[in-house]
Specification:
The structure is a single chain. The chain is mainly beta. It has two domains: 78 residues, Immunoglobulin-like, CATH 2.60.40.10; 225 residues, Jelly Rolls, CATH 2.60.120. 8% of the residues lie in helices and 48% in strands. The chain has three helices and 24 strands. Strand 6 and strand 7 form a beta hairpin. The longest helix is centred in the first third of the chain and has 20 residues. The protein is elongated. 35% of the residues are buried.
Length: 341
């Protein structure tokens, strides 16, 4: 009798322990299975893609849209609008309530029509439009040992015949041997992501250094290169027809900047379209629509904030090189500047 009672008492903890274990819901730690991902790309060039993800035992879905943007979607059904055209690898991760995951990737090709959001067509003769452009003024080398003095005179920046001329001159002015102009849209227009282009013709002469470029709008507080710099186009008179597209950022500035070059024909005698298409995932540099350098952008870089536009012609300096002693005057001629988003 005592032996039987002892056995019953010993069995009670086993029964209790068994009941406690059964309190966990069945399948809590079961990973998702049968993950399916479909994408329907809108045909109206809006950039919209309708995604549907389904999986057995999944309670949420993490979408990596392939352009640096991430989103968690509980039901697995979401429409995302891509900011620019391109082919993107989309990765979807299904999650169970216990944290188990299952992932799948698909590729989508998106066509996104852009709309012009800002431009200057330089159709009104005289000085540049003050509502769109200001000036950097003075000398001092501008960090590159340049030799020009930037002015706001019509002698150095003028509109006539439907184009803007930024004119570099050999003349004695306030202690400098050359004058020119540097126009900028700072405090007047900035933008984040999109396409920027200028149709322009380069000046002639060794030592000329025309540029069409941008700086991060936090330049005054962050400084350079922390603010980021996007050089859409640079040309050197001593290196005729070679076009530079360059990015400066911490660890990659000055001589160690990221960039590429292309060689074109007739840079100083014909107009060409110099452009950069800028997204959260890339910055693509092109001349006349032909892309020659692609930079991989990411959230850790300074190229994810508004930038302002700069146009100038420098003389000499570290990059411009030795100025032709016979140089008298030459201009970068700009037909238009346009920004699309």
């Amino acid at each position: 009798m005592l032996k039987r009672l002892f056995c019953i008492i010993m069995a009670i903890p086993l029964i209790a322990g068994s009941c406690k274990k059964d309190k966990n819901p069945p399948g809590n730690n079961t990973p998702p299975t049968n993950l399916s991902v479909t994408a329907v790309v809108s045909t109206d060039n809006s950039g919209n893609v309708a995604f549907t993800a389904t999986a057995t035992n999944a309670v949420s879905y993490d979408f990596d849209y392939g352009n640096g943007v991430f989103q968690t979607v509980a039901g697995g059904v979401v429409t995302y609008q891509y900011p620019s055209s391109g082919t993107y690898t989309v990765n979807v991760t299904a999650k169970s309530s216990g944290g188990q995951t299952l992932s799948k990737s698909i590729s989508v090709t998106v066509v996104r029509a852009m709309t012009m959001v800002w431009s200057d067509e330089f159709d009104v003769a005289g000085s540049p439009n003050p509502s769109k452009w200001g000036y950097d003024l003075g000398a001092g080398g501008w960090g590159n040992n340049e030799l020009q003095y930037y002015t706001n005179r019509i002698d150095n920046a003028t509109i006539s015949g439907g184009t803007l001329k930024i004119i570099a001159k050999a003349e004695s002015f306030s202690g400098s041997s050359y004058t020119s102009a540097r126009l900028l849209s700072k405090d007047k227009f900035t933008f984040k992501y999109g396409k920027i282009e200028a149709r322009a013709k380069m000046p002639v002469g060794a030592g000329t250094w025309p540029a069409f470029w941008m700086l991060g709008s936090n330049f005054a507080t962050a400084g350079w290169p922390a603010c980021g710099e996007i050089d859409v186009m640079e040309h050197l008179g001593r290196q005729l027809n070679t076009i530079y597209g360059t990015l400066h950022h911490p660890g990659h500035s000055g001589g160690s900047a990221d960039g590429g070059t292309t060689v074109i024909s007739n840079a100083t005698t014909e107009f060409h379209i110099y452009a950069a298409e800028w997204t959260a995932s890339s910055i693509k540099f092109s001349v006349d629509g032909a892309v020659y350098y692609t930079f991989n952008n990411s959230a850790s870089l300074p190229f994810n904030q508004p930038f302002f536009i700069i146009m100038n012609v420098a003389m000499g300096g570290n990059f411009g090189g030795t100025i032709d002693p016979a140089f008298v005057s030459s201009a970068m001629e700009i037909d238009y500047v346009r920004v699309y988003q």
